[in-house]
């Protein structure tokens, strides 16, 4: 069988890079997509993925037409797009009383519109071919809420609704749609939280530490596997016990 082709949005980010490496090591051909404006980060990503079947394409997930072109390009060059991981995410943390319209729009357009924009184009080929794995990277904060994150939590909780609805849309066509909800991990996004606040948050994590990006990637690889076809519309929390539910 041909290699499965995986696209990872936010692919050069803290979680994205590790997801790309893990999927490639599991035998996938991986296309990382991210904004073009950070040549230093793209160089670091190339070094981190050296020797693996991973390439980079520039695309803005907030741009519907750019996502259409990206999906077309991947399908033309590689023959299919089998696994889509929506890991592009940004924060613009501030309490709602200080939040301006731009901080709301930026977070919603990347974190939630971005999921729609890529899925909308990717599902056509997946359903036609009868195989697809979509994994949306949400957040524990989408489940619990977090001070200063009305924009982020709205988007991340929205991803769960989207995941469950799309899972039903495509369930009969070999396509699964799931989400993974990371807790606080060792990424630049989390390190940007002031140290004192971060320390208080980690104090409340039962395992007593930040998560490692590879611990998130492990769950993504699991959901992206060919034999994970009976898991759909689910959410896998990977949060060190910070939020438990059933
Ligand atoms: N709970 C309750 N009240 C709080 C509070 C909290 N956690 N933090 C601050 N307040 C209070 C303040 O004491 C202040 O009270 P007064 O008005 O009486 O003085 C008021 O709320 C406003 O506080 P600030 O002016 O400090 O609020 P701000 O608008 O500047 O926002 C913040 C502060 C930037 C949100 C800061 O609190 C922060 O960085 N918090 C952490 C947010 C966070 O966890 N982000 C996660 C990023 S990582 C990520 O998102 C990855 C993932 O998925 C897990």
UniProtKB/TrEMBL annotation:
<dbReference type="GO" id="GO:0018454">
    <property type="term" value="F:acetoacetyl-CoA reductase activity"/>
</dbReference>
<dbReference type="GO" id="GO:0032787">
    <property type="term" value="P:monocarboxylic acid metabolic process"/>
</dbReference>
<protein>
    <submittedName>
        <fullName>Acetoacetyl-CoA reductase</fullName>
        <ecNumber>1.1.1.36</ecNumber>
    </submittedName>
</protein>
<dbReference type="InterPro" id="IPR036291">
    <property type="entry name" value="NAD(P)-bd_dom_sf"/>
</dbReference>
<comment type="similarity">
    <text>Belongs to the short-chain dehydrogenases/reductases (SDR) family.</text>
</comment>
<dbReference type="GO" id="GO:0005737">
    <property type="term" value="C:cytoplasm"/>
</dbReference>
<dbReference type="InterPro" id="IPR002347">
    <property type="entry name" value="SDR_fam"/>
</dbReference>
<dbReference type="InterPro" id="IPR057326">
    <property type="entry name" value="KR_dom"/>
</dbReference>
<keyword id="KW-0560">Oxidoreductase</keyword>
<dbReference type="InterPro" id="IPR011283">
    <property type="entry name" value="Acetoacetyl-CoA_reductase"/>
</dbReference>
<dbReference type="InterPro" id="IPR050259">
    <property type="entry name" value="SDR"/>
</dbReference>
<dbReference type="GO" id="GO:0042619">
    <property type="term" value="P:poly-hydroxybutyrate biosynthetic process"/>
</dbReference>
<feature type="domain" description="Ketoreductase">
    <location>
        <begin position="4"/>
        <end position="185"/>
    </location>
</feature>
<dbReference type="Pfam" id="PF13561">
    <property type="entry name" value="adh_short_C2"/>
</dbReference>
<dbReference type="InterPro" id="IPR020904">
    <property type="entry name" value="Sc_DH/Rdtase_CS"/>
</dbReference>
